[in-house]
Write a structure and sequence with these properties.
The chain has one helix and eleven strands; from the N terminus they run E-E-E-E-E-E-H-E-E-E-E-E. Its main location: secreted.
């Protein structure tokens, strides 16, 4: 199988992009990308064509999520170009964009996930005779 080249660019307005990319067998470590910086890596698709890479992204106070950035299927390979195998991703304030090689334009592939924080309170005193347990759920934007 041919080499695949993955590039991730920080196109956020002002924030550092933290990311950690992995596959089933490889952990590429954590990286902090200042604005306009990029991270790239190269690999060969396995014999069975089941190679999958995903990245955990974080930026600002509450933005981020885990997203697949390479899988061996025609829809992605078409965008990455069958010939050059360059997969280019751009993190922007409204989501993660893929550079569609054949169309030579950016496509919003993923919107940032809303991050939720859960707090569990056990044994809250309701009155002198009763205690309660409760969840506080915060949706962060």
């Amino acid at each position: 199988m041919a080499m695949v080249y993955v590039y991730i660019f920080n196109d956020l307005n002002k924030d550092t992009l933290s990311l950690r990319c992995k596959s089933k067998h490889d952990d590429l470590g954590g990286h902090a990308l200042p604005v306009e910086a990029n991270f790239h890596f190269t690999f060969k698709v396995n014999f069975w064509g089941t190679t999958l890479f995903w990245c955990n992204f974080n930026w600002g106070k509450n933005h981020g999520g885990s997203y697949d950035i390479f899988w061996y299927e025609d829809d992605l390979l078409y965008k990455c170009s069958y010939k050059t195998k360059n997969c280019t991703w751009h993190a922007r304030n409204d989501g993660i964009y893929s550079m569609g090689i054949p169309d030579n334009r950016f496509i919003n592939f993923y919107y940032w996930k809303r991050r939720t924080v859960y707090f569990f309170f056990d044994g809250l005193s309701v009155n002198d005779d009763h205690q309660a347990s409760s969840w506080l759920i915060l949706h962060l934007e």
